[in-house]
Amino acid sequence: MSTGTQAFAPDLPQFYQPIEQNASYAVSPRTVRQVDTSIDRIPEIPDNIGDFLNTLNQRIFVGKIALIALIVIIAAAGVFIGVLVLLPSKTTTTVVTTTTTTTATTATTTTTSATSTTTTTTTTTTSTTSTTTTTTGTTTTTSTTTTTTSTTTTTSTTTATTSTTTTTSTTTTTISTTTTTSVTTTTSTTSTSTTSTSSTSTTSTTTQTTITFAPVGIYALNIPTCATWNDTGLTMAGNSNGTLGPDLGSLSSPVSIFVDNSDNLFVCDRDNSRILKFTPNSTTGIIVAGNGTVGNQSNQLAGPKGVAIDQYGSIIVADSNNYRIQKFVNGSSIGITIAENSTINPLGQMRDLHIDVNNNIYVTDSDNNQVVKFIPFSSIGIVVAGGGPPGPGLNQLSNPFGNFIDPNATLYVADDQNFRVMKYYPGSLNGTVVAGNGTAGSTPYLLSRSISVIVDNNGYIYVADYGNARIMKWTTNYAAGGVCIIGCTGASGVAATQLSGPRDLKFDRHGNIYITDQANHRIQKFMIQVPPLGCSSG
């Protein structure tokens, strides 16, 4: 037996080493069987182990490439699906507006609003971008909604609203057309909805008649400077004998009056809590405000003390004991409160009410010693004279009663307890004394309770001298004193030539003077007289 051995191949595993030829080994039968079995399981050895390894590496590389390609394909598919989902909603809005207008004043407001609502099940990511572009006459709103989901329900609504407000005489026709198209695409569901809305609105025709009215002294009136008035009065309302009553031919303590351009007479019948209208040549009144019972309901009055007609024919009433100003629109028996007493707008007992050419309302608030101005559509007053405690100062009043506004917005106030008449230029709270001198008396220079005042086209001032039962006239030469023109008997009474407590006075369009003869419960008219040859009106 040879004892030589064959060296192992250096690059082969141990189990590949050859068995020495002719070698003698002492083995058991069990060992032999194990060796035989192991030999059967030995794989075929390639001729070149390097080629084997290279081949193996190439196959691994190819597998990696295939895996990456598969991932890329899956990602591309996801991107494609995402692009389909991300397709934006397309909205086309067309607004066509045609307006035909015949008007003095027209205001039109158009509003377009877009609302988008999205309801989503499962997982949802939503992004919304809204862009609004406005061009004259056209408003376009575009909304883009991005949604990634498996199931999506989208509702898009576009609403077009056209509002037209017209004043004076106006006919306006507006045609508005809106078309909305929405396209929504999802992974599993595709829905298409088209909404078309068409609306046509025609509005409106409003006609208001502006009247040239006759407030306290007609502004267009041209009274000659030498005019006088008949000293015998004609009873236009109430009973000539001075008796009072609740019937439509009687009055009870009338106060303020108003005469319009048609010679209709409006009377504040204070103690009957109503406003009566007397047409020319009629001594039976028509109730136009209040119902004859005291109350604070919209159809009631309580001690009304001022009345005037505004430029639209509405009746404005100083509802004194209810501390409010009521407006009765053309024939309505239901009053609308346009101003009332409040913490921010103190309003006490009102003694008179006038309206100027701009439809501003002036009320004399004797409780607060002031005159308050209310501009149209405002319920908050502006103090234009007085205010604060009573006093004789030029910026003070003491229990003021009547007021008058001339066409130049100059304010005149009958300052009762200061026995004078004050004149205020626009914007000034410091007045000038133009009648009386602060002392009560019966001489031509004095007054005893100046209750009401009006001014004519010449600037002459007419005052109801309540305490002396007469009507006084002051020219522009204030220092010369006044002259008595009505009720100059020196005593109060019920005779046609007498007055008893003259409370208010107004001109009609002819220059005649109407007087509230309060204590005699009647309204007296005194006719104007001009010399046959006339006189200068300048």
The name CATH uses for the topology of the largest domain is Neuraminidase
Strand content of the residues, in percent? 35-45%
Look at the structure and name the CATH superfamily of the largest domain.
TolB, C-terminal domain
Portion of residues in helices? under 10%
At CATH's second level, what is the architecture of the largest domain?
A: 6 Propeller
First-to-last CA distance? 171 Å
Q: What radius of gyration results from the CA coordinates?
A: 51 Å
Placed side by side, the strands forming the largest sheet appear as 9-32-31-30
* Total helical segments: 2
Q: What is the domain total for the residues?
A: 2
Largest sheet: 4 strands, antiparallel
Number of strands: 33
Return the structural class: mainly beta
> What is the averaged pLDDT score?
75
- Report the principal-axis shape: elongated
User: For this structure, what is the CATH class of the largest domain?
Assistant: Mainly Beta
Low-confidence stretches: 1-16, 87-218
Transmembrane segments: 65-87
GO molecular function: zinc ion binding
InterPro entries: 6-blade_b-propeller_TolB-like (IPR011042), NHL_repeat (IPR001258), TRIM-NHL_E3_ligases (IPR050952)
Region (Disordered): 115-172, 184-206
Description:
- Pfam families: NHL.
- InterPro entries: 6-blade_b-propeller_TolB-like, NHL_repeat, TRIM-NHL_E3_ligases.
- Residues 115-172, 184-206 are annotated as: Disordered.
- NHL repeats lie at residues 242-281, 292-331, 490-529.
- This protein folds into two domains: 99-202, no CATH class; 228-529, TolB, C-terminal domain (Neuraminidase, 6 Propeller), CATH 2.120.10.30.
- It contains two helices and 33 strands.
- The chain has helices at residues 29-41, 49-85, and strands spanning 99-102, 105-121, 125-135, 138-148, 151-167, 171-185, 190-202, 228-229, 234-238, 254-259, 265-269, 274-278, 286-289, 306-309, 315-319, 324-328, 336-340, 350-355, 361-365, 370-374, 382-386, 403-405, 411-415, 420-424, 432-436, 450-455, 461-465, 470-474, 483-486, 502-507, 513-517, 522-526, 528-529.
- The strands form ten sheets. Strands 9-32-31-30 form a four-stranded antiparallel beta sheet, with no helix packed on it. A four-stranded antiparallel beta sheet has the order 10-11-12-13, with no helix packed on it.
- The model is unreliable at 1-16 and 87-218 (pLDDT under 50).
